[in-house]
Design a protein that fits this description.
Blueprint lengths: L1 E10 L2 E11 L4 E5 L6 H8 L7 E6 L2 E2 L5 H7 L1 E4 L11 H8 L6 H14 L1 H5 L10 H13 L5 E5 L7 H16 L3 E5 L3 H7 L2 E6 L2 E7 H6 L1 H7 L3
Parallel strand pairs: 3-8, 3-9, 6-7, 7-8
Antiparallel strand pairs: 1-2, 1-4, 4-5, 9-10
Helix pairs in contact: 3-6
Bound molecules: adenosine-5'-triphosphate.
Length: about 230
Amino acid sequence: MLVLDDIHVYYGNIAAVKGLSLTVHAGEIVTLIGSNGAGKSTTLRTISGLLRPRKGSVTFEGKRLNGVAEHEIVRLGIAHSPEGRRIFPKMSVGENLDLGAFLRKDKAGIAEDKEKVLDLFPRLRERISQKAGTMSGGEQQMLAVGRALMARPKLLLLDEPSMGLAPVLVDLIFETIARIHEQGTTVLLVEQNALAALEVADRAYVLESGSLKLAGTAAELAEDEEVVSAYLGA
Ligand code: ATP
């Protein structure tokens, strides 16, 4: 479904991703793990077209995405739930969700997906008219994921969905990711919480300083000594 081939991504003169290659197959949950500054968020931003690779290519379902506009990438089937929530604080929860469907014209499908999102996150249903900026961090995180789902993506990019959440909400977010996946969405997940990410994922890539350090099935990497000592806190 998705192929990154030797991508190099810069902020000005600073190389944030240096020759990364990876693949995501339809139907998988793939996770990118690595410490702060490893290049995980930069990789997601490059896939969704917010950043351009200086070298290398991003291909989605056989189509090269280099130079394709962000909204066109959404239309092709990739939605991004960014790090730090980035919801519209002065708009209501409902309006934020509607914005996730901004490119769609199928009213019935949009209404159906809104119901699905509100079923996944009952807290958002309770707060549908509330200004998004007045919600708790965890609720805003749910809204960011829900808004991305409103695009009905084939591939959902999730950047740190558990960041800053209370443990009970972390569990809920990971259960929800598993449900989204069961409903047919392919997921590329960036997480600091490597243990939880490896539990939910099929495969994983470990990034270090913008390059690939290790790759394998999630089960293999959860047992890898280096991964355990560096990222699983053992
Ligand atoms: P984190 O979990 O801390 O977000 P990450 O693995 O997602 O880590 P990135 O955010 O992709 O890492 O950052 C990779 C590198 O790029 C880091 O060295 C970071 O300082 C740098 N970087 C990220 N965003 C910018 C920016 N807007 N301008 C300049 N440098 C940036």
